[in-house]
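Why should sequence recovery work at all? Because a backbone constrains its sequence more than one might expect. Tight turns favour small or flexible residues, buried strands favour hydrophobic ones, and helices have their own preferences. The token representation captures these environments compactly. In the example below, the structure is given first.
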């Protein structure tokens, strides 16, 4: 049973627990960000792709105001929709938080009982929390007999992070989860929240490389980067660094702000260039942009880590690899490589044989490599009649 995809496991668990088929089924994918890192909260551009790894919920609406959920490997949880979400409730905070904000925004939601399953490794920079939030939002809506514009759901999901969990993230993760399409990445304009599908070039594969390291107590670093960007934008006199250019860097008061802004301004341009290279099927240019992104995150933005640097830099030297970089927020977790499809197996074998977690940042989970294809975005698969 554990080898089946999340959807099948959640459904089986529901049948075992409640003795009936679920009438409400939702799923939402994790994401890998191909390029465009730490740009979302600067109103910039990002180019993620939805993963073939889902969080699935198999449920039955209860007609009341209580959510009773169990999830593999976690204690079951009971959520009272008439009380405010508790930020310390672990995974239940996302399930409760999105239901709460949906209702506050005027959507009809309802209680459900059901089972969750996940194929998204937690802490590997693949946005398992955003996927959980999106799948849970769709479940609450389905239980209330309603639907929603997917972009609105994503933006409410970002508010769960910001207002319930107190983490000042941007909108990348949730938008990536709802806007996924098979065989395409999503170019996201994080200001207008316009999403343009960009087909992945033929003959290449995206490989996720999990360093097995996990983040600890670095939320303050993320908040500090965001604050630096806001100070830099204010000194330049623009709403967000999206509106700044490299010539504006001279107007910044200190070297740290110049480095942060240089990363964001450069990364926005690299992301637009990467989307063009993707459209043109130019894997060499796309890969070079990814490697340049890693260097900028390491040298100017200071959000890489010994393990992420070791993984990305090793991948960049491998035959058949067009480029590699850390992905997501940084400091630990996963990296991503663009690889010639014919070389994927040898690439993964060579990486597995050569990669050694650096002593400065030991792995706490297995080091793993996954070739991935782009998946469809979050959806309600079974809607109660
Ligand atoms: C985390 C945040 C996102 C984004 C990335 C960095 O994943 O949740 O909003 O800022 O980091 O690009």
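From this structural description, the recovered sequence reads:
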């Amino acid at each position: 049973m554990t080898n089946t995809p999340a959807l099948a496991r959640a459904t089986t668990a529901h049948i075992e627990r409640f003795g009936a088929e679920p009438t409400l089924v939702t799923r939402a994918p994790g994401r890998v960000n191909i390029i465009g890192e730490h740009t979302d909260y600067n109103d910039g551009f990002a180019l993620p792709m939805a993963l073939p790894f889902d969080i699935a919920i198999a449920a039955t609406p209860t007609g009341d105001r209580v959510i009773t959920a169990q999830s593999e490997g976690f204690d079951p949880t009971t959520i009272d929709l008439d009380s405010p979400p508790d930020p310390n409730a672990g995974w239940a905070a996302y399930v409760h938080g999105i239901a709460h904000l949906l209702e506050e925004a005027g959507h009809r939601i309802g209680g459900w009982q059901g089972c969750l399953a996940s194929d998204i490794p937690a802490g590997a920079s693949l946005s398992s929390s955003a996927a959980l939030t999106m799948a849970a939002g769709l479940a609450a809506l389905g239980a209330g007999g309603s639907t929603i514009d997917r972009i609105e759901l994503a933006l409410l999901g970002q508010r769960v992070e910001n207002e319930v969990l107190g983490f000042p993230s941007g909108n990348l993760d949730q938008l990536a989860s709802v806007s996924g399409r098979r065989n395409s990445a999503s170019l996201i304009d994080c200001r207008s929240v316009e999403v343009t599908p960009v087909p992945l070039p033929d003959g290449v594969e995206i490989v996720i490389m999990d360093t097995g390291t996990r983040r600890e107590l670095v939320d303050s670093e993320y908040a500090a980067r965001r604050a630096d960007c806001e100070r830099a934008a204010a000194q330049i006199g623009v709403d967000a660094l999206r509106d700044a250019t490299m010539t504006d860097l001279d107007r910044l008061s200190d070297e740290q702000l110049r480095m942060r802004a240089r990363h964001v301004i450069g990364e926005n341009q690299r992301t637009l260039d990467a989307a063009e290279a993707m459209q043109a099927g130019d894997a060499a240019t796309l890969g070079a942009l990814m490697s340049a992104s890693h260097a900028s995150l390491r040298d100017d933005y200071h959000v890489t880590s010994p393990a992420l640097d070791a993984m990305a830099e090793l991948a960049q030297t491998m035959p058949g690899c067009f480029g590699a970089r850390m992905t997501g927020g940084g400091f630990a977790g996963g990296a991503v490589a663009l690889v010639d499809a014919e070389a994927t197996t040898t690439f993964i074998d060579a990486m597995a044989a050569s990669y050694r977690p650096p002593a400065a940042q030991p792995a706490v989970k297995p080091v793993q490599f996954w070739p991935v294809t782009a998946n469809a975005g979050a959806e309600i698969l079974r809607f109660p009649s």
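A few observations help interpret the result. The chain has a mean pLDDT of 96.
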